[in-house]
Structure formats: structure tokens, C-alpha cells
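Hey L., structure's done. Input below.
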Amino acid sequence: MRKITITFLQFLLFFAVFSVFVNAIYLLVIIKTDWDFRKRIESLRFSSPDYDALILGSSLAQYGIDSELMTKHGLKSYNMALVGNSVKTCYIQLQEYLEKYSQKPEYVILVANSCLESFDQEGIHPVVEFTMKKQKIDFTDIPVSKFRWQGTELFKKALSKEYRSGYLSFGQLRRSKIVEDYSEHDYLHMNYHKYEKAIWIEKIAASCAEEQIKLVLIEIPGVNETQNSDSIGPYIVSFKNKNDAILYNFNSIEFCRFIEPTLDWIGLSHFNEKGAAKFTVEMLEFIDFKLN
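Output:
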């Protein structure tokens, strides 16, 4: 019986050591190869950043806003958007930035699509949660389990040369692949009140007001079937806490005329590199970003 117990304990010890080793290797590989992890670490290690604008949002913003092009046009920008990001996580990212760095941006640009995204999810992006200051690590933070999505992304890179060719520029994720859009307009309406009632957007507005930062809300274009027939605006979004934000409806059919549906998309309403550059130019022509 004693021999069986010793053998069992040896097996448990081996399994524990092996699990730690596998998770450590997995985490190291993910940190080195995952776009979100690399951006996150970079943003936490900025040396006296002096950005005029920070871009927040999900993968729609990560692919769709060309922050390098914005910088070349005189608005020094960094794209902090992450795949699957919640607005709550955007708020956390902004708070971290404002607490960590002395020079504040003049603009915070929150990019979303009310037709495709939920604004009040309570979840925190796993990469942000794992790297947050004073974050307590428990069994839910085991890398192989917590970063399943990042593992899927790694698998895609292993299989696809095109996927591996993607790269980050000023935080923007660039890929050249084309997925043609043959969907038709449904003449929807933008959900303005979704912005107005969004708790975490309201909190972002409060943080911006406190730091005297201008908050710009962007309804980013999607494929034809997601576009709406409302005017571009701008609209004033007023929150319960008495703060305001400016909203531009760039998912308006009127605004989206510049899009070439068979050339500018990479799939699922995400711009490819060419489409993102075209959209960013159109955005900069429409919004007058004035710097002090």
C-alpha cells in the first residue's frame, strides 16, 4: 500500500511539474507571438509618451484605424484596440494610461459598431486582466486555459502564410487579405440610444472630462448589410452624469460610398490594410482634430 501511495505521489509531482513547464512555455510563446500581448506590453512600457490621440475599441478598431497615417497627418496616435475587447476593458486601459503617464492625450477616440457589438459586457479582456497591476493570480489564470483564443490565433499563424504576414504599426493590425462583400443594404437605423445608455462609455466620458480630454465616438463602417440610412452627424451624446461626447455615424450608407466592397474588407466587417487607410483618410477629412 505504501509503495502504491509513493508511486501515486510521484505521479502527481511529475504531473504538476510537467503542467508548470507546459504552461510556462505556452505563455512565453504567446507573449512573443500574439499581437494583443505585444501591444499590451508595449503600451505598459511607453517611455514618456506624448500621443495626441488614443484609439480604443475591439478588433474593428484594431484593423480599421490607421494610427500611423493619422500620425503622418499631424495627429500623433496609438491604436490600443484589442480583439474581442469590451468597453469596460477600454475604460480600464484608459484609466491605466492616465494614471501611469503624465502627459495626457488631447483626444480619446472610442471606436465601435452598435449593429455588431454589445457595449455593456462586464468581462475584462484576458490579456489586460492578466497584466493588470495588483491582479491576483488564481487557478482561472492558467495560461493554457485563459488564453485559448490566443492559442487559436497561434494555430492560424502556423497554418497560414498570409496570417503570419500580419503586422502591427502604431498599434494597428495590418493584413492585406481580401474577402469580398456581396451583401446588400438593409437600410437600418443607427442605435443612438445604445451609446447614450452605455454605462462604460459614460465612465470613459467622465474620465475624459476630469482630464479635459475630448472624447470622440466613432460608429465604424461595416459591410453593406450592417450599414444604416441615417445621417453622418455629428451627434451630441449626453450622459446621465452630465458629460457629453461627439458621435460620428461613419457606418452611414452616405459616408460609406468610398468603400469598394470587393477590395477593402478582410472579413466580418473588418477592413484590410488598404481599406483601413482609405477609411482613415475619409475620417480625417471629416473631423477637424484641433490641437492646442
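The longest helix spans residues 2-33. The chain has a mean pLDDT of 93.

-- N.
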